[in-house]
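Supplementary Methods S3. Complex input for the magnesium ion-bound model.
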Amino acid sequence: AAPVAFIGGVSRAAKAGILMKGSAALEALARIRTAVFDKTGTLTLGGAELVEIDVAPGQEPDELLRLLASLELASHHVLADSIVRMARHRKLTLSQPRHVREHRGEGLEGLVDGTAVAVGSRPLVLGDGPLPKWADNGEKRHRGAQVLRVFLALDGRLAGIFTFGDAIREDAADTLGALRSAGVARIVMLTGDDAAAAEKISASLKLDAAFADATPADKVGTVEAEKATAPTMMVGDGINDAPALAAATVGVALGARGGTASSEAADVVVLTDSLKPVAEALRIARRTRGIAL
Ligand code: ADP
Ligand code: MG
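Predicted complex, serialized as structure tokens:
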């Protein structure tokens, strides 16, 4: 391969807001046949708006939001940023959380003002346990809707459920279409979210497969299985995707928040918070290889 052509490709990508970590990343991108996408914050906007807070009898929605946001101060998840912003917008005074344990891709727990707070997915917070009666209505209303649900327990008891909108990114369909035109034969989605949410998005974006309830370790397993069949690109965000990005033929981190584990694990970093550059990166790589060969 002619190094000059690859350097040209790397610099064309940079102009489009795509950071390629060397010409090896560009060469590998040109060979990609399978694309694996994370859902939350990658194919979707990842909870940019708060739709509703369901609370247990005796609980105050604003106080629960304050406790949630305080705990999220310690998280690097896409959701965490927007939750903290929402709480500050409502002029809630956050407290520094203590003794925090983060369960990547599932949620976190810690002490806020002396109360044990746990937040995250239903399995993390409730295990296999049933929903209490007060939560039934919200559960029915939001089942299958394009939302993200965050469960919050205080001292081990479910106290509230937050429902955030999780709309598909505006440029998702176009980006996937452009990838297919550029020769990507298989597009797969991975999510830590449940099957109802995954199926809805999978149908709407005409994906070839979608895997729900995936832990960060499951994500690595799927990427490795795909890679055994064809050169595989993994596109993700959030620190919980770092291992999957590292396992892929090419890892692409989206909307880089400088110095996160994901942008370090990735071979390609998209600097803007949008999907389109992912297809552009692939196009540049294919074109550059055409010139170099
Ligand atoms: P995806 O794999 O699609 O990116 P995530 O693994 O990021 O999804 O999140 C899956 C679920 O885990 C979310 O719907 C949410 O309930 C929960 N979750 C993960 N991280 C957090 C967090 N920092 N705060 C609250 N909930 C979280
Ligand atoms: Mg995610």
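The pocket of adenosine-5'-diphosphate (ligand 1) is lined by residues 38-41, 72, 75, 77, 79-80, 105-108, 119-121, 148-150, 191-193, 238, 240 (CB under 6 Å). Residues 23 and 135 are 52 Å apart (CA to CA).
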